[in-house]
């Protein structure tokens, strides 16, 4: 049986939530956590599958943690332990950094393009093959897992988008069915839903409810000038204490200055869809030619909105 939005599979330490089809509201606000939005206009939304932020913060924090453990061991005279941490931790972090660098150096792939007037998605595969998938055939899944280690338990998760291959559009979906897939890691549960809601809200509501692309913040300013500007804006909005001891400290601890430099260099030129077929497909349509929701989706959205309204009313009254 094909899973639908709202279906959940769960095991001892894992969970898999289906968000689409049918693409009904998640109840979460649209938030581009990973900066996946490359382009947005009244006709289409371009989504990129590469995000550098999560990997940078994780690897940089891991590196600082290992360096701190080595420094502490040396200060306490535990030289053998310091060497062991350097050998094991250094090997692991080196392996992860090499993988990150390889991903960074890989050419950017063309974006996924969601055309809200056609209610279709345009896919460009690695080999250059192109095809379109009906919006209501897109499967969005939010898998999550609990990782248990010596420092406790941590929950990790992501957002997986599955699209049928060109010659299999109408074939039924199942968990082991091959398809064209992208997976990103905004986080488990609500975080994955917020990232998905960017796409869903654009297609079902409109571009006005979706965040603007923020690949390169303050592109007309230097990295340091941009930092000063964000600090000033933060002080006005959130107060000086929170801005300095949270936003400012966060930037220095995770060396976001180096991250912004790499991001600006990587996303200096954003790829586009260039084939004549894709260019023609991307054009706007007269309103009378816009595709409409299926009756099944219309009913599902109405039912979901009713449930969300009832839940919100219960929370307010409670």
Explain this structure to me?
This protein has helices at residues 53-75, 79-105, 190-204, 223-238, 240-253, 256-266, 276-281, 295-317, and strands at residues 8-10, 14-20, 37-40, 44-47, 112-115, 120-124, 130-134, 139-149, 152-157, 159-163, 180-184. It has eight helices and eleven strands. Helix content is 42%, strand content 19%. The chain has one domain (7-309). A hairpin with a 3-residue loop joins strand 1 and strand 2. It is of the alpha+beta class and 318 residues long. The mean pLDDT is 88. The strands form two sheets. Strands 1, 2, 8, 9, 10 and 11 form a six-stranded antiparallel beta sheet that branches.
Summed up:
Keywords: Membrane, Transmembrane, Transmembrane helix. With 318 residues, the chain is an alpha+beta fold. 42% of the residues lie in helices and 19% in strands.
């Amino acid at each position: 049986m094909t899973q639908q939005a709202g279906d959940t599979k769960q095991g001892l330490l894992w969970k898999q939530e289906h968000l689409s089809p049918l693409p009904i509201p998640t109840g979460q606000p649209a938030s581009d956590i990973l900066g996946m939005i490359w382009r947005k206009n009244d006709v289409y939304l371009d989504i990129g599958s590469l995000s550098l932020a999560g990997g940078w913060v994780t690897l940089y924090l891991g590196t600082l943690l290992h360096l701190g453990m080595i420094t502490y061991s040396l200060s306490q005279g535990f030289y053998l332990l310091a060497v062991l941490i350097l050998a094991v931790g250094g090997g692991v972090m080196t392996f992860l950094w090499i993988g990150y660098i390889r991903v960074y150096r890989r050419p950017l792939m063309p974006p996924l393009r969601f055309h809200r007037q056609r209610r279709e998605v345009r896919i460009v595969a690695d080999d250059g093959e192109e095809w379109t998938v009906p919006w209501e055939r897109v499967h969005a899944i939010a898998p999550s897992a609990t990782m248990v280690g010596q420092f406790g338990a941590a929950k990790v998760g992501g957002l997986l988008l599955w699209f049928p291959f060109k010659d299999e559009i109408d074939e039924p979906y199942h968990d082991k069915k091959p398809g064209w897939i992208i997976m990103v890691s905004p986080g488990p549960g609500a975080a994955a839903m917020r990232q998905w809601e960017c796409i869903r809200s654009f297609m079902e509501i409109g571009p006005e409810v979706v965040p603007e692309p923020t690949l390169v913040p303050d592109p007309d300013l230097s990295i340091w000038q941009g930092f000063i500007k964000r600090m000033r804006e933060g002080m006005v909005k959130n107060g000086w204490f929170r801005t300095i001891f949270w936003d400012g400290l966060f930037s220095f601890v995770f060396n976001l200055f180096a991250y912004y430099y790499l991001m600006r260099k990587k996303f200096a030129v954003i790829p586009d869809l260039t084939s004549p077929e894709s260019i023609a497909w991307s054009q706007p349509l007269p309103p009378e030619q816009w595709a409409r929701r299926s009756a099944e989706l219309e009913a599902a959205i109405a039912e979901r909105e009713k449930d969300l309204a009832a839940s919100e009313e219960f929370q307010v009254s409670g």
